[in-house]
Amino acid sequence: MNTTVLDPLATGFAGGGQQSATLHRKIGWAGAFWVASGVPALVLFSIGSIAATVGKPSWAIWIVSIAFGFLQAFSYAEIAGLFPHKSGGASVYGAVAWVRYSKILAPLSVWCNWLAWSPVLAIGSGLAAGYILSILFAPDAAINTWQLTLLDLGWIRTDLALRINATFVLGAAVMLAAFAIQHRGILQAARMQMVLGIAALAPLMLVGLWPLLSGDVSTANLAPMYPLAHDASGAVIDGAWDMSGLTLIAGGLFIAAWSTYGFETAVCYTREFRNPRTDTFKAILYSGLLCIFVFTVVPLTFQGTLGLGQLVTPEVTDAEGNVVSAAVYDGILAPEIYSGMGVAQAMAHMIGGGAMVERVLMAMLVLALVLSIMTSMAGSSRTLYQASVDGWLPKYLSHVNRNGAPTPAMWTDLGFNLLLLMMSDYIFVLAISNVCYVLFNFLNLNAAWIHRLDRPNWARPFKAPNWLLAVGTVLAFCNMWLMGMGADIWGAGTLVSGLVMAASIVPVFLFRHYITDKGKFPAAMIEDMHLGAEEGVRNRAGILPYLTLAGGAAVVYIAHSVAVL
User: Fold this and answer.
1) Does residue 71 contact residue 468 with C-beta atoms inside 8 Å?
2) Backbone phi and psi for residue 305, each to the nearest 5 degrees, phi listed first
3) What is the per-residue pLDDT across 319-362, written as a single tens digit (0 to 9) for each?
4) Domains of the chain
5) Is pLDDT of 10 > 50?
6) CA–CA separation, 486 vs 190, rounded Å?
7) Taking Cα atoms as reference points, which of 375, 272, 384 lies closest to residue 22?
8) How would you class 535 by CB atoms within 10 Å of its CB: exposed for 0-12, middle for 13-18, buried for 19 or more?
9) Across-strand partners of 313?
10) Fewer Cβ within 10 Å of end Cβ, the chain: N or C?
11) 27-60 in b/e burial notation, b at 16+ Cβ within 10 A?
12) Residues paired with 171 in a beta bridge
């Protein structure tokens, strides 16, 4: 039987169905590199919380995690090359593999990817606002202490609430500024990202290199690498490599993945590359190399300079044993380091040079956060856009403005994140978001071998070596283990809350597919995904995708069962 070699570029697909406007092909790999250059700034989001939770091994956590992310990226580069006419990133390309086996799995992949990336807007804006307020005002100033509580969410997590304060107001302004830039289209956004990238990546490079060159990094702060533990009085001691210690390590690797795997966003812009055949691989490769440097060096110098920290004020309890005031530590165990609000000030102090130099560096770190916000808005909005075009999310999301920017999707992103910005605990938001991100990674890493089986004759501008594809598959299950074991160290119910958020796509998809579209996918999507009986494309994977899903669920269950919290 003759087989047909299918070249997605030669098919002439528009990727936007019958829309009157579509995304524009205006950038090369360098443009996508600069749009993705906001990913290294994600180290600011959780560097403090990981260090304060895991202890001395935290710097090694980042190295292992970025190694995982880099190895996984080659699977994403291959599947992105199969669909150079589609926008939305790896989740959309992976969804093509899963949709032939279940209608629900495809939108689940895309939804989880969006729920993972979108909160960068809220968390990044909140941290940027906190940095700005710390530059301008004292911690006890009225502008930093006033708060209006709108809704108590203590039933989800202790002390969680929706509130309005100065951080929310200023953070909303930062988010709107990023929106205004993205509204002008991908080419203008990429140019602005290049300017911001040069200014924003400089302080991260400085923080990573200066302490090494000046000799301020102490090896005593990095080793011996025992998980964090406390004695009966609350003093810091070396833990043990028992199940409790391994649970901490799993939690650290779990939360680090949200940052270190993020450069896969470089493939979100395949639909807007002038030459997607070559630009896709180059974009993700060079973005990955940049992230390897930042995620390796910055956590190393951060911990090596500040040190683990010791008990400053013991915990105070009442007669019934309830905590009146929590224990206070210095170093990387300080509460402002855990929350992230004090990370910029600590990094600025690492460089030295006086108060003025510290303020300038903190201002540049604000730019780094703005860069990450713009990266997230560009990627997550395009995921919503393509998911709508493909018939998984509401139709209104499939429109773009005259600049080729998916503005309805961007407005949806904005509204969702204004709600998240009101949350009183950004680390909890990040952890729930990462449950969705791990699910997305699991589905998409396995999508690579499903595509190999179902579409063996499609042209692949980049074809990953078989061993790398196998490594990606193993890491998919490894990520599920880390999630099952480590998610709940970031708060009881984190794993369940994340799974509920992921499942919330089901009623949304069912409404779009069965009510709006009467049970039929858009014609362009059916053609793009080769859902019909077509020579050269068949469900060759058989029962393997279903066994993979069952295996992933089993891994999460077993890992969660053996965790010691």
Assistant:
1) yes
2) -90, -45
3) 777 777 888 888 889 888 888 888 888 888 888 777 787 788 88
4) 29-562 (1.20.1740.10)
5) no
6) 36
7) 272
8) exposed
9) 328
10) N
11) bbbebbbbbbbbbbbbbbbbbbbbbbbbbbbbbb
12) none
